[in-house]
Amino acid sequence: MRNFIFAIFLFVFFSQPAFAGKLPDFRLKNLDNKTVAYSQLKGKKLTVIDFWATWCKPCVRAIPKLVKLHEQYKKEGVEFIGVNVDGTRNLPKVKPFSHSLNISYPVLLDVNNELMNKLKVTAMPTLIIVDANDEIVFFHQGYRPGDEKALEDEIRKLLTASESANEK
Amino acid sequence: MKNKLLLGLLLGWLGHAAAQFSAGNTLEYQVGNLPHEQPSDLTALYNQLNFSYQFRDWRGDIKLERFQRPRQERDYTELTQRTLRYNRGGFDLAAGNFYEILGRGLLLRSYEIPGTILENPGERIRYGFYRDIDGALAKFTSERLDVKLLRGKPLRNTFPPQSNARERRPFLLDAFETNVRLLENFTIGGAYLREHGDEVLREFGSLAVSGNVSKNIQFYSEYAQRLDGGNQRFDLSDRSAHAFYSSANFVAGAFGLSVEYKDYNEFLLEYNDPPPLIKEHPYAVLNRSTHLINPKNETGWQGEAFWHTAAGQTFVLNFTQSENLFFGRKIRFEELFAEAGLTLSEKTTVKGFFDRSADQLRREKDRYAGGIYWEREWAPQWGTALDLEYQTLKRDFDPGRVVRNYVASLTLSKAPKISAGLILERSTDPNLTDLPNTARVETKRRHWAGYTLGYQFNQRYLMNVFYGTRRGGPACTSGICYEVLDFKGFEMRANLTF
């Protein structure tokens, strides 16, 4: 067993791609109780996925900043998706809460934390950026004031990279 | 050593080449103990590795947990989950360990609270916080029809991983659920669950309706009951084992409202998790004072309103009431919570809350709490957050004593990498002030002081350090409540995602 653990640690340090692997085309219910697939919501160039919950203080603080970024970048092919992980305890509150916060992007309900587990998300909030080929290219845990600036820098960097790739 | 290195390099190369591996690792190392307990430098190492391999529509997952303390009889290294899944379109098949829910969890809910580590208070064994099902699952999801079929053994997560397998998974469940969208905005569903225990077979059924009355109004209602044992159908009296849950919500612009009702009787199954209808608070003094539901007999309701003004101010108002039958006597829990969040400038926000509650089961009355949370970004990406909370309560068996709880925390952060904080707590609760290692009975006060440091090395590596004393007690995360033990010492947690 020790050998196995040792091998896993070696694997971690030798495998360079930060988030190798594609985001699977998941299906979750939206706030109107309708099942939607990720492929229906994803952005032309980038998709920002925010894992959040109503009880999570930093998540709620981050949401207005994400709404601003969404308004700013949606015309450039960047879509945002909120994945709420409240579970059954707070489920009826998610829709009124999202509306009151004016969340302009779709909010999906990961009641069983299925997607959260699949993507190995362990902290709230977690932000993921997925490119047009569904590759996970950015992963950020937690929220500190000013994190939105780092996210915006990353979005700009990825948009520039995507434009240069298209020109070639 | 050479073989290990080769194996590591091979796995690393596979990670590059196939790009289909993903993993998450949480490692927590502690040097310390319960405050006032010896030895004070007890070490504990807990590691959880979640490893996945995806090949087209197939996916394999494993969870490997390891726990190490100096007394080796409590150590374990266990492959606690292994799952093979097939997913294509709306079809999902799983064999091994999986999580599933029927309806809103009245009959069945399995879950994982990622990033949370449980500690068994008796043997002090640490392990992951999840309640999975070991068996097989077939699911079909479409816009009009959802069908679930499962057979498996749910986990009793009060037993740590190295416990006897029969103790950990004593029941075998068979379950079926279907939901049909009859009209554009109206869904009806039903579930059946059969539990095979020790020489006992129990059967349960449920019916659920949900829909959108208009764009602004949504509702959900579910009734579940035990089908065997002479229970009358749709009997909501105390004679039948039943669970009824109903919710509705309303939105109008920036105003939102949710209302919920519950009636649970003889429905304490070891694998269900009916909605508790108790507010989950982010504030420490309130989160700790939560009411734990008892589906053996509980009724109640909860209402919550939200309002967010165009200027960025938020208002939340919540009222909760719960009643339990305790040895023939009605026991009530009641809470009123109000919160206002104000945006003072683009860089400064402040939130204030007030809470009044009474919990007859804990024999606590006149429980008042208030606090403020202030946050300011004072230079580009440099931020400060200050959290001050105060709670006072009386117990009906000691009406002359006023218990006071204080929480103060200050966090300094530099986005997106660093945060450092100080958490101070103080209590005059006589249940906490008496130190177990002295002959005297201390009644005055007790303090806890802890320092935290968080550093995100890169996108895949996050480290958190804690040093000092931490106050334990009940805690709720992701809607699930559990007991956290006190701690004094040093703790380091590393999260790695790749």
Which word captures the global form of chain A?
A: globular
What is the percent of helical residues of chain B?
A: under 10%
Distance between the termini of chain B: 24 Å
Q: What is the N-to-C succession of helices and strands of chain A?
A: HEEHEHEHEHEEH
Largest sheet of chain A: 7 strands, mixed
Major sheet strand order of chain A: 2-1-5-4-3-6-7
The total strand number of chain A stands at 7
CATH topology annotation of chain A: Glutaredoxin
Strand content of chain B: over 45%
- Structural class of the helices, strands and pairings of chain B? mainly beta
How far the N terminus sits from the C terminus of chain A, by CA atoms, comes to 48 Å
The radius of gyration computed from the alpha-carbon positions of chain B, rounded to a whole number of angstroms, is 25 Å
Q: Outline the low-pLDDT stretches of chain B.
A: 15-19
Relative strand content of chain A: 15-25%
**How many individual helices of chain B?**
4
CATH class placement of chain A: Alpha Beta
CATH architectural category of chain A: 3-Layer(aba) Sandwich
Q: Quickly count the domains of chain A.
A: 1
Major sheet attributes of chain B: 24 strands, antiparallel, barrel
List low-confidence stretches of chain A. Answer: 13-18
